[in-house]
Amino acid sequence: MTIPIAHPAVTVAIALLEAKLPLVTANPIFVSGAFEDGHDRLVRVDRMHTGMVNMVTDEPFMLFECWVADRPGVYNGSTEAEILANQVRAVLTAARSETFAGCFVRYWHDAGCSPHPDPKRPSMVRWQVIGSLGLAVSR
């Protein structure tokens, strides 16, 4: 009997973004499962909830926090953070039927994005992207 086991969704999503974001932006983007100071642009990835929807698909509801440093006189952090959020949404959608970190991506169901300021980090602007990532399970 084969027991299906879900892949680590955060690891898969980080690998996906690291592979795909350079295709849509020349800006260096740091991608991680945790916020790390010292980066002007970063995406923090987290799995929020949900799980297996059937014997072959794990469907984690994912959070992508898109952070951009606000640089008055150079660029508008709010605009740049929204652009980064839209780039994240685009590459997640485009990743269908590709493999990242050993996991086949079935689909991305976008649930939207919105600004979400963090009072602990006033020099950074944050936009959040949420949605379900359909991932094939290991067999």
Explain what this protein looks like in three dimensions:
It is built from 2 helices and 7 strands, in the order αββββαβββ. With 139 residues, the protein is of the alpha+beta class. 31% of the residues are buried. A hairpin with a 2-residue loop joins strand 5 (99-100) and strand 6 (103-115). Strands 1, 2, 3, 4, 5, 6 and 7 form a 7-stranded mixed sheet that branches. The model has no long low-confidence stretch (mean pLDDT 93).
What descriptive keywords fit this protein?
2 helices; alpha+beta; single chain; 7 strands; 22% helix; 139 residues
Strand content: 35-45%
Q: pLDDT under 50 segments (min length 5)?
A: none
Please tell me the overall pLDDT: 93
* Rg computed from alpha carbons, rounded to a whole number of angstroms: 15 Å
Large-scale geometry: elongated
Describe the biggest sheet? 7 strands, mixed
Category from helices, strands and their pairing:
alpha+beta
Cα(first) to Cα(last) distance is 10 Å
Number of helices: 2
Q: What's the SSE pattern? A: HEEEEHEEE
Number of strands: 7
Instruction: Provide the helix percentage.
Output: 10-25%
